[in-house]
Amino acid sequence: MIANSLHVSALAVLLMLGACQAPSEPTTAEPASAPLAAADTGSTAALPPPTVAINGRTAIISLPLRLSDNLIWVSSTRMSEADPFVFKGLEIKPGGGPQGTDLAVFFYEADHAGATVLKFGLVPPGKMLVGLPGAIYTGPVAARFETSVTVQ
């Protein structure tokens, strides 16, 4: 059941953000501009900090979570706000995070020079924080994270 919900969440994010081929340009990532802020929603305890890495033009944002909490990380950055980066994929790694947590790994690729802030929220599976009116989750977000990424 969780696996199906995760697939739906990942597919929804993919459909929302689309994909685009990017030219080769160097990138840099600034340290996370906001620490992981976990709200105690009952079963969700504080999570280890996320990591941000740059590999060529690709920004890799790794966000710890606990799949047993029935929550998943989703982007809260609209396509127009992510420029010069475009969403390329999401990989869920059960048991792949620090301190025995699971991991949601987001991949963004630079399309051209510039800077942006990428934002994420921890919500129930199958929910979105950006998208069509009426489809956006308006309940409590268990945690939020944002990071600045720059393309030279």
Q: Can you walk me through this structure?
A:
It is a single chain. The protein is mainly beta. The chain has one domain: Immunoglobulin-like. 13% of the residues lie in helices and 41% in strands. Strands 1, 2, 5, 8 and 9 form a five-stranded antiparallel sheet that branches. Strands 3-4-7-6 form a four-stranded antiparallel sheet. A hairpin with a 2-residue loop joins strand 3 and strand 4. The chain starts with a helix and ends with a strand.
Unreliable sequence segments: 1-43
Count of extended strands: 9
Element string (H = helix, E = strand): HEEEEEHEEEE
Helix/strand-derived category reads mainly beta
Tell me the span between the first and last alpha carbons. 42 Å
In the CATH classification, which architecture applies?
Sandwich
What is the name of the CATH topology?
Immunoglobulin-like
Number of helices: 2
Average pLDDT, rounded to a whole number, is 77
Q: What's the CATH C level?
A: Mainly Beta
What gyration radius follows from the Cα positions, in whole Å? 15 Å
What general outline do the C-alpha atoms trace? Answer: globular
Percent helix: 10-25%
The biggest sheet amounts to: 5 strands, antiparallel
Integer count of domains: 1
Hey, roughly how much beta strand do the residues contain?
A: 35-45%
